[in-house]
Amino acid sequence: MLLTEIEGITLSDRVCKLIVAAILRGEFSVDHKLPTEFELTARYAVSRTTVREALSRLRSEGIVESRRGSGSYIVQMPGHVEPMAPSISSIVDIERYYAFRFCIEAGAVRIAAEMRTEEDVEAIHAAYSALDRTADGAGSGVEADLELHLAIAHASHNPFFVSTVAHALAPIRQCMERARNLGQTQRHSGQVQAEHQAIIDGVVKRSPEQACAAMSRHIENSRRRIFDGG
């Protein structure tokens, strides 16, 4: 099956819907492992990047979860195939997105600093290290960055924060990709990682104020990097 992009529908969207359709037909079952990225690439005749984007969307919708060293598993039946989060289509949407993200992630990290466990800290550090490894060009870094922010949300042990951040991954990804397309990701990678480290330090120290302030600075700086390269 050779897929081509249709106006208004990306290849990753089409792959996502095809995987959902296969789950609904019973080809892939809940609690079972999906085919590997390589197998899905061959099945749908698309690039591995396209498959990863499709899997990332399925993770953000709670249909699939990644298990380190094992692969992607189906954790629930899809209720529908439409996006669960609004997409970004204008400058105004970007501003709205950052206002939303400021409220949600600053609040989530404040709770994470109070509620985190040692296992949470290990997961956050692992996500940070994975992101750090992309600095030399080993991957785009977008998915690793998303995993770090999701790990911080998980440390809050509040399912409402976790669900909200997970469902917001699609617009977060859009903004990150926009920054990368503008050539700002590599140029600011050291600064971004320093901002991430400051957030992590606040969580590790169980300091809600420090963690919240660091997350707020990171989100504001991310917004500035989108609009003026600052």
Describe the structure.
Residues 9-77 form the HTH gntR-type domain. Keywords: DNA-binding, Transcription, Transcription regulation. One of its GO terms (molecular function) is DNA-binding transcription factor activity. This protein is mainly α and 230 residues long. The protein has two domains: 11-74, Winged helix-like DNA-binding domain superfamily/Winged helix DNA-binding domain (Arc Repressor Mutant, subunit A, Orthogonal Bundle); 91-227, Four Helix Bundle (Hemerythrin (Met), subunit A) (Up-down Bundle). Helices cover 66% and strands 3% of the residues. It has eleven helices and two strands; from the N terminus they run αααββαααααααα. The protein has helices at 11-25, 37-44, 48-60, 91-115, 118-132, 142-154, 159-167, 169-181, 184-187, 189-204, 208-227; strands spanning 64-67, 71-74. It has a two-stranded antiparallel ribbon with strand order 1-2. It is globular and about 50 Å long. Mean pLDDT is 83; it is low at 4-8 and 80-84.
